[in-house]
Amino acid sequence: MRLSVPELIALGEALIQFNALTKGPLRHVTLFEKHVAGAEANVAVCVSRLGRSSAFISRVGDDEFGRCIEAWLRAERVDTRWLKTEPGAPTGIYFVQRGYPIPSRSSMVYYRRGSAGSRLSPEDLEEEAFRDARMVHFTGITPALSATAREACLKAISLAQNNGLAVSIDTNIRPVLWPSLEEASEVLMPMVEKADILFTDPTDAEVLIGENEPEKILEVFRNLGIGTVVIKLGERGALASSGSEKARAEAINVSVEDPIGAGDALAGTFLACQLAGRSLFESLRRATLVGSLVTTVRGDQEMIPTLRDLEMIYRYYYP
Ligand code: KDG
Fold it and tell me: What is the 3-state composition of the chain as percent helix, strand, coil, each rounded to the nearest 5?
């Protein structure tokens, strides 16, 4: 039996996250909570939970954490038929330090060098996955992982272009994964220029185009020919432009437990809404709402609502 091909293909590294149960410097934290995370895996889960179909292309280690990731993604109905088990390399992990040094902010400490996910390679991308899909998504994290992961991103772009898929990129620059910010810009800009949908924020835009003012960022990226640009502004919400339309959405006021994962939830919700044919404004409002919700708990994916719950929450905030 031929399985139907998912609408969104995400490629990247899924990680196990150990989130500090208490706030403050990690040296004083005793208890950690385990979650499945990783930027592109977060997007794949979000799209699936919101009623669209997604697949995740990656490699995990032949270990308990790799099995945990695969089981979690399957339970979330993410298509894992292109998720490989890599013998001889571990599944990457990271720790989340919360509320220190800046209150209500979190930071990440990675243990992922040489991980199975970093061995993602062009041979993991089969044309079959792209033939009937509608979008491919990756973030600036994936090209930072290794030379082969970078080539995989380039192949994803060309497969998408040849098969009529939209290319969605979230710039997600993680400075510790790059030798320098100049290199991040040199590698990412040629990919970003080929995006149809771009998610970014003022910090990343400063690295990529030397601009941090939202309206100016929109203008520069749109002038590069990118059809849809979404600027994530954290507590200030988001701004987007597509075709001749422009939209702005405010974040809702919530009590922040851990902001990590909010950007992926925003991107995943926006893409799910676009797949469902919603307008720019309707997509952006829902995306901003889900981005805010995710910050209220530890873990990147747990607070992403189902489609039915999202509509209920939406009516609550926008009666
Ligand atoms: O966006 C959240 C991700 O950054 C987090 O889950 C970990 O994928 C991750 C990364 O590489 O930083």
Answer: 40, 20, 35
Write out pLDDT tens, residues 81-135: 999 999 999 999 999 999 999 998 999 999 999 999 999 999 999 999 999 999 9
Average confidence score pLDDT of the chain = 97
Q: Is there a contact between 55 and 44 (Cβ–Cβ < 8 Å)?
A: yes
**101 cis-preceded (ω within 30 degrees of 0):** yes
Is 28 strand, coil or helix? helix
Whether ligand 1 lies within 6 angstroms of the CB of 141 is answered as: yes
Task: Indicate the top mutation candidate among 73, 141, 146 to test ligand 1's pocket, ranked by most ligand atoms within 8 A of CB.
Answer: 141
Catalytic residue, candidates 124, 170, 204, 264: 264
- 229-256 average pLDDT score: 96
Q: Return the closest-CA partner of residue 171 out of 207, 145, 136.
A: 207
Cα(244) to centroid of ligand 1, in Å? Answer: 32
Taking the whole predicted model, whether its pTM rises above 0.90 is answered as yes
Residue nearest to atom 9 of ligand 1 (CA): 38
Task: Kindly give the pairing relationship between strand 197-200 and strand 135-139.
Answer: unpaired
Is ligand 1 within 6 A of the CB of residue 261?
yes
CA 88 to chain centre: 27
- Of the candidates 184, 96, 179, the residue with the CA atom closest to the CA atom of residue 141: 184
Q: Can you name the CATH fold of 8-317?
A: UDP-N-acetylmuramoyl-L-alanine:D-glutamate ligase (3.40.1190)
124: annotated active-site residue? no
For residue range 42-95, what is the model confidence (pLDDT) as tens digits?
A: 999 999 999 999 999 999 999 999 999 999 999 999 999 999 999 999 999 999
Going by C-alpha positions, the residue among 172, 178, 235 that lies closest to residue 203 is 172
pLDDT of residue 3: 58
CA nearest to 246, candidates 223, 280, 219: 280
